[in-house]
Records
---
Amino acid sequence: MTEDILRIRGGKPLCGEITVQGAKNSALPLMAAALLCDGETVLHRVPQLSDVYAASRILNRLGCRCRAEGNTVTIRYSGSGSYEIPDADMRAMRSSIMFLGPILGRMRRCTLSMPGGCELGPRPIDLHLAAMRQMGVKIREEEGRIVCTAEKLRGTGIRLKLPSVGVTENVIMAAVCAEGETVLINAAREPEIVDLARFLNQCGAKITGAGESTVVISGGSPLTGTEYAVMPDRIAAVTYLCAGAAAGGSVSLHGAVPAHIESCTQVLEAAGCSITEQGGVLTLKRTDRLKAVPYIETMPYPEFPTDAQALISAVLCTAKGRSIIEETIFDSRFRHVGALLEMGADIRVSGKKAEINGVPGLHGAAVAATDLRGGAAMAVAAFAAEGETDLRALHHLDRGYEHFAETFHSLGGDVRRCRFSAKERENQSLGA
Ligand code: EPZ
C-alpha cells in the first residue's frame, strides 16, 4: 500500500499568477443534466477531479457515452441504460444525489441510496425526496435502497424550507421534463444554479429567475445537447487568495469572477489585504501582519460561504486580535481545527462558533485532511507556517482541486507531492 502526502515548507511569501479551474460544484450538475439531452453535449473547462470521474462512471452506467479529453467532457445518451445507481457510486460523493432529478426526468424511475461526500454533520436528503414527491414521484424503501417511480412528472409550486443548493438543482432538472410549470420558492441563489439554468436554456429549456429566490421552470421543451464552458470555481479562487493572505506576497488570478467571491474578498480586505482588479486579473497583496475580523457568519449566497469558512479560519490564525466565526449551514464543519491547533493556532470551538485568538506565527506539523475544504485550509496554514508540514489523506483534496501542488508551485510555493510505502511512512514516524 502506498500513500501520497503533500510536503509543504512554509514561511515564505507566495507570488505569481494562476488561472482558476472550472467549478466542481457546477461541472457535476451540468454532467448530470446532460442525461436529459438528445444528441451530444460538450462541456469545456471541466476540472480533472475524482468527483468528476465518479460522475462519468455513473453516466456510463445510465446509458451515456461519456468521454473526457483534458478538460473537455463529451456526453451522449444512448437511449437505454440502467436507472439504478449502485451503492458504491452513491457513496463516492455527495453529488451522486444530483442524478435523482435527471434520471426521473429521463426514465421516470430511479433507485439509489444515501450519498457520501464530506462529513460535515448530518446531510439528509429529505428535502430532495419531498420535492420529488410534490412533482408526483412515489418513493418507497426496499432493502435499504430508495426506490422512486413516477407515471409522469407534474409541474407544481414548491416552497423550500431552506435554500438548499442541491435540492434547487434537482428540482430544476426534474421540472424541465415535467408537464406544466414549476414555481420554486426560496430557491438557492448560488452562481452554480445560474450556470445550470443557463446551460439548460441553451439546450432548449425555459427557466427564468435562476439566481433569485423564485425560479420558474416551464417543462416539456425538447432538450438538445450543446457546447458549454463551466463557470470558474469560486471556492478554488478563494483558496488561492487565502493562501496569499496567510503566507503574504502577491497572488494574481486569471478567470475569477470578482462578483462571485465578494463576500470573501471583503473579509480579506477587512483583515488588511489589498485586492485589486485590472484587465480581468484579480490580485491580492499582503505585506503587513493581518488583523482579526471580529465576526463572520456563514450563510447562503450572496453571504459568506460555508465552503470558505475553514480557509478563512486558517488565515485568521495569525491575525492580530480575536476573530469569531459562526457556522450556520452545517453542524460539524470545524473538524480541521485540530490540525490548526497542532500547527500552533489558538482556537476554541464551542458548538457552531469558533473563537480564534491570533498567534504571531504557526509551525509545521504532520496532519491529515478531514474533508475537502478542511484539507485545503491545512495547506493554507502550512504555507504560512515556519518549517515543514506533511499533509495526508489527500483523497479529500483530489475531490475538489485540480493540480493542487502544481498550482502552488507556480506561485513559488515549496511543495511536493510524495508517494510513500506503508513501510517508509512507518520508518519516518519512528524517525528512522
Ligand atoms: C452544496 O452541497 C455544495 N456541493 C457544498 O459544497 C456546499 O457546502 C453546500 O452546497 C452549501 O453551499 C455541491 O454543490 C456539489 P445544501 P449541498 O443542500 O447541495 C441541509 C464543497 O466543499 N439539507 O445547500 O449538499 C443540509 O444538511 C461542498 O465543495 C437538508 O436538511 O448543500 C445543510 O445543512 C461540500 N435536507 C443545508 O441544507 C436536504 O434534503 C444546505 O445544504 C438537503 C439539504
Note: The longest strand covers residues 2-10.
---
Amino acid sequence: MMNDYAAYLTVAQQAARDAGAFLKQRFGCIQQVDESLAHDVKLRLDKEAQMLITRHLLAAFPESSVLGEEGNSGRQDAEFLWIVDPIDGTVNYFYGIPIFCVSIALQHRGRLVMGCVYDPMQQECFSAIAGGAALLNGMPITVSARSRMAEAIVFIGHGTHDGSGEVGIRRFAHISRQVRKIRILGSAALTLCYIAAGRFDAYVEGRICLWDFAAARVILETAGGSLEFEPQEEDAARGAIIAWNGRLPLHEALKLDSNA
Ligand code: IPD
Ligand code: CA
Ligand code: CA
C-alpha cells in the first residue's frame, strides 16, 4: 500500500520545493497585502504560491482535487484530495522572520496518507507516507524520548479567537511553570515537524485549521508521536489541537487547578 503513494509524494515534494524557492526569492521584499486583520495578514503571495502548487499537483494527477487555505479546485469529495497550506507562517514571512513553510497533504478516500512540509530557508523537507518512515531530507526521524514535563520544550498558542484567549493565557501560565522552555514558532506545521524530529516535545493550541496540520500530522504520527484534534461544532475543519511525543503526561499536565 505504501508504495502506491510514492508517486504522489514525489510530486508533492517537487511542488513544495518550487513554491519554497518562489517564496525564498521574494523573502524580505515589500509584499502586497490583500487583507489586514487584527491578528493576521493575507498576502498576494499566499494566493500565488497556492496557484503554483495547484498547477503542479493537478498537472500530474488531473483526477485529484485540492482543498487549500487560499481556495479549492475540483470536487471536494474526490477520491484523492490534496490539502494545501501554501505559506504556513505568513505573519512571520511578512515581518521578515525566516520561519515559515509550505505544507501539502494527501487524503485518499477520506484518510490522510501522505504529508510533505518544506522549509525553504533551512532547506528542510519533512515527509512521510502513513505506514512508512518519517523522513527529514531523506533521513529517518523520530520523536524525542523525553517523558518528564520538567525536561520538555512545549509550544503553546494562547489563541486570539472567540474568547479562547483567557483559557489559553491561564493554560500558558500553568504549563510554563512545569516545563523547561516554552517556544512559539509561528508555524503550526513546522512545530509539529519539530516534534516529529525530536526537537520539541509538545504543542497545544486552541484553534487551528485542517490545512495547518494535515501534512505534519502524517509526519508526526509516523515518527511515533500522538495528535488529538477536537473539531468545532460549527466547522469541522477548525478546532483545538494537542500533539506530543507520545511519552509526556500531557493530558495530566494540562489540567488547570482552581488556582491556576
Ligand atoms: C497560522 C500558523 C500559526 C498558527 C495559526 C495559523 P498561517 O497559519 O500556523 O502558527 O498559530 O493558527 O493560522 O495563517 O500562517 O497559514
Ligand atoms: Ca497555516
Ligand atoms: Ca497559510
Note: Residues 85, 88, 188, 212 surround calcium ion (ligand 2) (CB under 6 Å).
---
Amino acid sequence: MKFRPIVLSLIILSISCSERSEVDRRVDALLSQMTLDEKIGQMNQLDYGSVNSEIIAAGKAGSVLNCVDAARINELQRAAVEESRLGIPLLMARDVIHGFHTVFPIPLGQAATFDAALVEEGARIAAKEATSHGVRWTFSPMVDIARDARWGRIAESFGEDSYLASVLGAAMVRGYQGNELSSPTSMAACAKHFAGYGASEGGRDYNTANIPERVLRNSYLPPFQACADEGAATFMTSFNDVNGVPSTANRWLLDEVLRGEWGWDGMIVTDWNSAGELIAHGVAADLKDAAELSVNAGVDMDMMSYSFIGNVSALVKEGKLQEKQIDDAVRRILKLKFELGLFEQPYIDESNAGASDYCEEHLAAAKKAALESAVLLKNEGVLPLKEGSTVLVCGPMADASHDQLGTWAPDGQESHSITALMGLSKLFNVIYEPVLEYSRDYDMGNFAALKAKALRSDAIIMLAGEEAILSGEAHSLADVKLQGAQREFIDALSKLGKPLVTVVMAGRPLEIEQELEDSDAMIYSFHPGTMGGEALAELISGRAVPSGKLPVSFVHSSGQYPFYYNHSNTGRPNQGNETLIGDLPLKAGQVSNGCTSYYLDAGYGELLPFGYGLSYTSFKYSNITLSSNELHSDDVLKVEFELTNSGDYDADEVAMLFIQDLVGSIVRPVKELKRFERVSLKAGESKHICFELPIKELAFYGLDNIFKVEAGNFKLWVAGNSADGEAIPFKVI
Ligand code: BGC
C-alpha cells in the first residue's frame, strides 16, 4: 500500500514524459521540413485587419489577433491548413481580459474580491465563451504591479501588492488554460507585460521605468514568476524600458531571468509593434536592427512590427542571427500549437459559436464577482436602504451600459448590461433624474428639477465615476479626480437633507476625500461589468452584504503618487503629528530636526489603506496564536485564530496576514501581505482559521542579491486590512 502513490506518480510521470517527447518528436519532424522563410512566417503575428487568405496560404503568419468571427477564423484556418505548403494551423489570439461576452469586473475590481477561486472561475468562463468563437490564446493575465493611479492601465492590474497579484495571476492562468491545453475550451494564457510597465515614470503610459534590480526582483517580478510556475504558456514583453533597456530587447530579463533562472520554456511575444518601437526608443537604427535585438533577447514572435518577416532571413545569412535561434523560437511556437491540439482540431464548430455566451451560469458568476468586488467605504447608518422605498437615482454612471463594462472589454455588448438604474428599479421605487449625462459633463442645468424630485424621495443614490475610456491603455491622468461637475454635484446633493449614497464606478482609485465626506455612505464598485447594476442593487438593499477590500491604497491627493502600503522604512518614520501647511507660523525659521517624511499639504498617510472595506456586520479577530515564536528557515509557521461575525448579517470577511522583517541587510517594507482568506460567516458564527506560512516565503533579495531568508526579529498582524491589528513578535533563528 505504502508505495502506491510513488508507483502512480511514476506512471503519471512516464506518461507525461512520453507525451512530451511525442510533441517534441512531432515538432522536430515538422521543423526539419521547413524552409527558413516558413520558419520566419511562424514568428510573425498579424492583426486581423492586415491579413487575408493569400498571406496565410503563403505561410507568412503563424498567428492572427483580433478575429472573433468563427466563420472567418475557419476560413483563415483553411488557408493555413489546406493551402499552405506544410499545413500548419494558425494560433488565433485576442485580448480577453476580464470576460469575453459576459464581462466580469475589471481586473482591479476582481482583485478587490480577494477570491482566487472566483477569479479562476471568471477566467474559465471567459475561456469557454472565447474558444467557442475560435480564440485559443488570450493576452492575459496582466500582472504588472501598479502603485500610481495616474497610470490608466492600473485598471487592468491586480493593484499594488505583489503577493495578491501573484495569487490572482496564477488563478487566471489556471482558469484560462484549464486542466489540459488540448481541451477545445482551453486558451493559452499570456503573462504581461514583462516587465516593470507599472512603474512607468509619473504614471505616463509607455514611459521609462527605473527600477533597481533588487526592487524589480522583490516587488515587480514575483507575480510573473508565479504565472511561469503555474505553467502560463506565453509571456508578452512590455513597451517600456527598464533601466535603459526596452523589454523587447532585454536579453537579461527574457533569456537570463525568465528562461534561465526560472526555467520557463514557453513562448514569448512582443507587445504590439514593440520591436518596431525600439527605433523610437533609440536603441535600434531600423527594423532590421530591431529584429536582431529582439530575437537575440529571446523573443519568439513579433506582434505587428513586420521587423522579423522583413529582416530575419537576411540577418541569418549575414550571420548576425543563428538559424538555431530561429529553430528554437519556432520550436516553442509549434509546441504550443501541438499542445493546444490545433493540428488535430484546427476548425471550430460554427454552429456552436457563442452557445454559452451570457448563459445563466456565466451571468451568475459575473454577478458574484461584481458583488464581491464592491467595497463599502463609508456607512453612517444609512445602508442598507429599505427595499421598496423611494430613491432618487442620479449621476452619469446610473445608466451607463457601455461604461460599466470598463476598459478592454472589446467583446462585451452593452445591450446585455444590467445598469444600476435597471437593478435598482427592480427593488426600489425609483425616481430618475441623471442631471449629469456622462462623467465629463459640466452641465448641471437640470439640478432644479432634481431638487423638486428629491423632496419626494427617502434617499438619493448618486452613481458617480469615470467613463470606461478614461482609464486603460494610453489613458493616464495627471489628476485622478472625478471629472466634469461631479464634485459640485455631490456637494449640492449633500445639502438636500436626504441620506446620500454615492456609488463610484471607476477604473482606478480616484481622489474622493471630499465626496466621501459629503456622502452618508459610499460604495466603490470599480467598473463592475455586465451584471454590475443587479449586484449594486442587492448590496444597497441588503440582499447582499459588501465584502470587497481595497487592492490599492486610496490617497488624499494625486501628488502623493507613487503610493503603496508596503513601502520601505524611512529613517524618519511618520509619527502622526506632522505640522500641516495651515499650522506653520509666519516667518518661521528653517527646521528639519524632528520632522518626518510627509507632504505639508497632504500629510503622510493614505486616505484609505490597502485592504480596507466595511461590511453591514462586524468581525472580531481573537485568540491569535503562533505555532512557535522561534522558527528555522525550513519551518512552517502556523497562525491560528478565531474569526467571529459579531453583527446581525450573514457575510464574508477577508482575513489577512501581514508580516514585517524588522532588521534586514537592506531596508525592508513596513508591512507585507503573506496570506489571505475569504471566509463566509453566519451572523453570530465563529470559525477557527489557520494560516500556514512556510518561513522560506520570507526570503528576499538582500544586499548580496541572493534570494534567502535572513534570520532576525519579525512582527506579524492578523487583521481585516493593512492598518489594523496588534503586532505579534516572532523570530527566525
Ligand atoms: C497592449 C497589450 C495588448 C496588445 C494586443 C497593446 O497595445 O499593450 O496589452 O495585449 O496591444 O492588443
Note: Residues 95, 139, 192, 271-272, 473 surround beta-D-glucopyranose (CB under 6 Å).
